Amino acid sequence: RSREKTDFMPPKPPPKKKITNPIKAAAAEEEAEKKAQEEKEAEEEKRRLEFERERQEAEAAEQEALARKNLFPPKFRFRISNVGWSADNPPARFGHLAFGLQGKLFVMGGNRREASGTVYTLDVTANKRWYKMDVKGQGPPSYTAQSGGTYTDSDGTSYLVVYGGVGPKGEVHCLYALNLTTLQWAELGFSGTAPRYHGMSCISYNGCLYFFGGRNPENRLSNEVFCLNCEMYSWEKLETSGTAPTPRFGHAATVRNDCMYISGGIDKIGCLEPTRYREPSSTIFELNLSTRIWRSVGKPSPDAPKNAQLYGHTCTAHKNGLVLIGGHNGGVNVLNLDTERWMAPHTNGADMPPRTNHSVVSFFEQEILLVFGGEYKKLNVEYNDSYTFKMFPE
């Protein structure tokens, strides 16, 4: 009996029924939903950050590739190629105007006498054939020593703008523009004080054309800078400071970023070879178009151009430097604007004859420099051929 009594266990009472507080239950449910929403937002933010990181990495890679494309390597060469000749090639000429715009080269004027406003174009992106443009209206006479550039208005319409020159009756100071959409020439009125020189260099920048140097019929040389606002066709003579170039003509000019660069020229009338330069042959002059301050760039170097080259040559902004081609002593020289050091790259490919008073235009997308025309006085030869220069690392 005693054992049975000891082993006997009474049954457990049933669990008490849990009484749920509706207010606490609603709060718990709300807290659970809030936590789930926070986790969802955290996951979305994680995916967004991952996407942004991938986008930034892709953008950085693209910028790095673009930077490599727009930089001269430490050692490189230029491969020269002949563009070819067709029946529509412009007649041989020198001292002409050449413009590059939207993958096309435009050539006009120079020593060749032809109908006023005649323009030839070469599409460097397609078949690389020349065409004589079917322009309308009265354009500028085909004079030498003209100056001009390109301009695109706020509506996206592009123009070739041409000023001045020297004709059979002397110096002219007229302003013309060719609408490249309608192919209509127009002579333009203007306000302000226009330059009274011919043979000025001209660059296009930020809706304006900037003219430098030149000479007048009395053989007075200039180192003045004039700005033509192409929105209002108003002239302004710029007040500049710093180390300005001496007065000159026969020089070359180009633009990169917000700076205009001046190279070479003649600073003494009748001096066929500029041996009386006041600055060394390695000097390039830079005008910051925002601050209007001049300075000289380019360190002395055996790879710098020789003095005799610095007349009748071209100076063209390409990648992160300036490329000088041709001139009275021929050759190719490059100034790296990041280091201000000169380079004399090798060339191979086609054999381009030496020349002066030719034109060179840089086409960024195609990574080429395009040479057209010019003359070689020693043989009394004028050219209407075209060559491309393309850079390759060594």
3D structure, described in words:
With about 400 residues, the protein is mostly beta strands. It contains two helices and 26 strands. It has a five-stranded mixed β-sheet with strand order 23-1-26-25-24, with no helix packed on it. A five-stranded mixed β-sheet has the order 14-18-17-16-15, with no helix packed on it. The chain has a four-stranded antiparallel β-sheet with strand order 2-3-4-5, with no helix packed on it. The longest helix is centred in the first third of the chain and has 48 residues. The chain is elongated, with a radius of gyration of 34 Å. The relative contact order is 0.13. About 0% of the residues have low confidence.
Structural class of the secondary elements? mainly beta
Instruction: Name the poorly predicted regions.
Output: 270-277
Q: What is the gyration radius calculated from CA atoms? A: 34 Å
Count of individual helical segments: 2
Helix content: 10-25%
Largest sheet: 5 strands, mixed
Mean pLDDT: 87
Tell the overall outline: elongated
Comma- or semicolon-separated keywords:
2 helices, 5-stranded mixed β-sheet, single chain, 394 residues
Give a concise summary.
The chain has helices at 2-7, 22-69, and strands spanning 76-82, 97-101, 104-108, 120-123, 130-132, 147-152, 158-167, 170-179, 184-188, 201-205, 208-212, 225-229, 234-237, 241-242, 252-256, 259-263, 284-288, 293-297, 313-318, 321-326, 332-336, 341-343, 346-349, 359-363, 368-376, 381-393. The chain is mainly beta. The strands form 6 sheets. The chain has a 5-stranded mixed beta sheet with strand order 23-1-26-25-24, with no helix packed on it.
